[in-house]
Structures are given as structure tokens and as C-alpha cells.
Amino acid sequence: MTPKLKRADSGETLVEVIVAAVIMGLLGLTIVGAIIASRPIADKINSAGLTMANLSSAAEQIRLQPFQACSPTAPQPYALSTTALQATNASSTGLAITTNSLPLGQAPSSGLTYPYSATLAATGVGTNFSWSVSPALPGGLTLSSGGVISGTPTAESSKSYKFTLTSGATSVTQDLTLTIVTISVQVNDASGAAWVACQTVPKATITGAVASGSLITYTYSAASAFAAGNIVTISGVTPAAFNLVSATIISATATQFTIASTATGTYGSGGLAGLTKNVNVQQIIISTSIGTRKYTQTIAVAI
Length: 303
Hints:
By secondary structure, the chain is of the alpha+beta class. The chain has one helix and 20 strands. Among the domains are: 78-181, Immunoglobulins (Immunoglobulin-like); 202-278, Elongation Factor Tu (Ef-tu), domain 3 (Beta Barrel), CATH 2.40.30.
């Protein structure tokens, strides 16, 4: 007589129970594996969200600054405050890091570099203490044992860093994100239909000028033509009445343009005069990078 398998209380055979248990175990491992595998994705999503928030903060800082028009000699008129975003929570007791955010850093732009400085704050610190950070800070920046982040950033980036404060036998840590942004200033070109980098705004040379009634017509040479509506700054002309700041061109050709003025006479001496084209609209592009992915935000500033 063939023996029968003993049945479990629920009515399944022991084989069925064992098979079900194995399946549930494998399913559990699959779920755990999926959760573990999804953590890097979640971390990237959180990092991207924080990065966009930092870019928005940078844009707000620029909007709050007094307007400064860019020019070929000052192509980057915007410098972020290195303290505007630094916040602390001083309500902690005992040894605690009270800095809970870091100011944005500014990467090189238009041939200019921007020094960075931020001091970490803490409570309950004894006379013998030191700070450290992991991983290493972005290129150009270092952390002193006294908690000062300083240097000149070399490239844009956005990353979380673990700062450790050790005082005596006690250590505390704080995760802080440090974002280095690039700020690129662009201006309308002569046609008003395209954007060009601010430092490439054309310069020209005045070779002659004649005043007639309420107008002055300048003869110029330049790589690209000026157009009606362009705003120009004229300097170095003799007599001085022909030198104007932020004058609007009424009409223009490839070699001449006319502006309104009360000056009289003709172009005198003093050599060739400098002519700089200004603009009435600027486009500010703020960007940073997480690994190989770039994040940007654009704002427009008008005179």
C-alpha cells in the first residue's frame, strides 16, 4: 500500500507547503533586491531635485542684484554672494553641527574666476577640535581643520559631502550639498534675433562724425554692421560733445549710423575713437552638472 503524505491543517500536502514557502522566499528576495537596486535611482532623483532648487536660488540671487550691463571689458557682471545661502540652526545643545546648507560656488566664466569661502558652524565645541570631509571637495576647494571651506572652484558640479566634527573623544557628522554653478551672460546680436556670448559683443572704430541739426552721423568700421535700435557707447572722440553713453541708433548702414544729439561741428582730432555696442536685453544661463548630466536654468534681464 502506497503511503500518503500527511496533510497540513490548511489542506495542502507537505510538498505543496514547502514549494509555496520556497516561492515566497524567492519572491521576498526579489522584492528586497529591487528595493536595494532602486536606491541609487532614488538618490539620483533626490540629487537632481536639490540641484534644480539650488539653480533656482542662484537665479533669485541674480534677480535681486542691481543690474549691471555687460561689456567687452566686463563680460561677467554677476557674482553670487558666498553667504546668501548659508543657514544655521543654533538651537542644538551639546556637540552638533549647526550649518544646514552651503552657499553656491561659482565656476570660471568668461575668463574670470570666483573665490569661495564658507565657515561651518557648531555648538558644544571644546578647545581641541578638527573638521574633515568625505569625499574630497570639488577641485580648487579645501576644508581647514577649523571648518573653513575656501579656494577657487575650477568646474561646475553638485554633490553631497559628509562633514565630520571631532571634539575630544566625540564626533558628529552632517551631510551637506555643495553646488558649483556656471553663470553665462549672453546678449542680443545686431539682428536682435540671436544670442551671443557677452565677451564677443562687437567693437568698432569711429573714423568720422558730422553733426547736423539734432542728429550726428558717425562713420565706422566693424566686423559686423550696426542696426537701428542698437544702443552704443562712444568714447575717445574730439571734440568731447561727440562722446555719448547708451545712445540709441536711429538709422544705420554697413558703414554709418545716426543718433540724436545736440552736438555741433565735425569730427576733430585725437586719433581713432572707440565704439562699443551695448544691449538692452541680456540672457543669463545658470548651469551645473551631476556626473555627465547637465542642468540649466535661464532668466532674462532687461535694462
